[in-house]
Design brief:
alpha/beta
Length: about 300
C-alpha cells in the first residue's frame, strides 16, 4: 500500500467518519491515488465487506494492496456507474471522492504539471496513455476557447492577453516544453508570480483532463449506484468543483434547481448533511499545505417512501 509520500490525504479522519462504514458494506474510493483513504476503509470493513477503487493514473497501480476485498479499476471515475455494475455491485453503501491532484504527480517533472521544471514536456495528462497534452491544447485551440478556459478554470484576469500571446508564440514555433509557456507568461504576470502561474497551470490541467465534465458524469453515476440511505462524500479544492458538488447535492443536477413531479412537489434525491462544508482545522493546515483550499461536502441518498 502506498504511504503519505504519495500525498497526505486531506480531512482523512473526517471523510472516513462521514462514510459511517458498515463491516459488510460495499464502498467506492473514486480517487485511489496513494491509497490513503482506501487503507482506512479496508481497516473498517469486515471480511465480507468490499471496496472498489478507481484511478486512471497508471502510477497508482504501485499502491494497490494485496487484499481480496479490493477491486482496482484503472479508469477515470467518470465511468463510475458502468464499472461499478460491471464489477458486480448493483448498489453501494458509500462513495468517497477526493478531487485533489496528488503531490506525487506535481513532483514528477516528466508529468509536466508544475512550472518548476521548465525543461520538461508540457503534458499534464492524468492518463498518460491517451488524450491531448497541454502543449497540444495550446497549439490547437482557437483564441476564444483558450481565453474561456483561462478565465473560467483559472480565474486568470488577463486571459484574453494571454490567449493572444499564445497565438503569437505558436505562429513562430509550436509549444512543447513547460519553459515555452513560461516564456509567454513571464511578461504578462499580474500580482504574485506563484499564484498567477498556479492559476494558468490549473486552468490548462482542468481542460486537458476534462475534469469538470468527468466530475459531472461521476456525480450522476454516484446517484444511480448509491443505495437509498447511501452516503456521498466529496472533497473539492477550487470554487468550480465545490459549486458543482454543492448544486448536485442540493438538486441532483448541475443547474441547482430542484426538479418537480407531476403534482409540483420538489424532488430532492439527496439529504445534504453538511450545511456548510467541513474544512481542515489549524493543526492540519500547519501540517499539510495542500489542505488550505479543501472543502468536504456530504449527502445521503433519500430513502423514498
Amino acid at each position: 500500500m502506498g504511504d503519505y509520500d504519495y500525498h497526505e490525504p486531506v480531512l482523512l479522519d473526517e471523510s472516513i467518519q462521514a462514510l459511517h462504514i458498515s463491516e459488510k458494506g460495499i464502498y467506492v474510493d473514486a480517487t485511489f491515488g496513494g491509497g490513503g483513504h482506501a487503507r482506512r476503509i479496508l481497516e473498517a470493513l469486515g471480511p465480507e465487506g468490499r471496496l472498489l477503487a478507481f484511478d486512471q493514473d497508471e502510477a497508482a497501480l504501485a499502491n494497490v494492496p494485496a487484499d481480496d476485498r479490493l477491486t482496482f479499476i484503472p479508469h477515470n471515475f467518470r465511468h463510475l456507474e458502468r464499472f461499478t455494475r460491471f464489477s458486480g455491485a448493483k448498489e453501494v453503501d458509500g462513495i468517497l471522492a477526493d478531487l485533489g491532484v496528488s503531490s506525487h504527480q506535481f513532483d514528477q517533472p516528466e508529468r509536466g504539471f508544475s512550472y518548476r521544471f521548465p525543461q520538461m514536456d508540457l503534458d499534464m495528462r492524468m492518463n498518460t496513455a491517451s488524450g491531448r497534452t497541454a502543449a497540444d491544447l495550446l497549439n490547437q485551440m482557437e483564441p476564444g476557447q483558450l481565453q474561456k478556459i483561462l478565465g473560467e478554470y483559472g480565474e486568470v484576469r488577463n486571459a484574453r492577453t494571454v490567449a493572444e500571446a499564445v497565438i503569437r508564440f505558436r505562429n513562430q514555433r509550436p509549444f512543447k516544453l513547460v519553459g515555452d509557456l513560461l516564456e509567454v507568461l513571464q511578461p504578462l504576470i499580474r500580482g504574485e508570480r506563484h499564484r498567477y502561474l498556479a492559476q494558468v497551470f490549473q486552468a490548462l490541467r482542468i481542460a486537458v483532463n476534462e475534469e469538470m465534465e468527468s466530475l459531472e458524469e461521476m456525480l450522476q453515476g454516484a446517484l444511480k449506484v448509491l443505495k437509498p440511505g447511501g452516503l456521498l462524500v466529496v472533497l473539492t479544492y477550487h470554487s468550480l468543483e465545490d459549486r458543482m458538488v454543492k448544486r448536485f447535492m442540493r438538486s441532483g443536477n448541475q443547474s441547482g434547481d430542484p426538479e418537480k413531479d407531476f403534482y409540483g412537489n420538489i424532488k430532492r434525491p439527496f439529504e445534504v448533511l453538511t450545511r456548510n462544508p467541513v474544512q481542515p482545522d489549524e493543526n492540519e493546515l500547519d501540517r499539510n499545505t495542500r489542505a488550505h483550499s479543501a472543502k468536504m461536502r456530504v449527502a445521503r441518498k433519500v430513502i423514498e417512501a
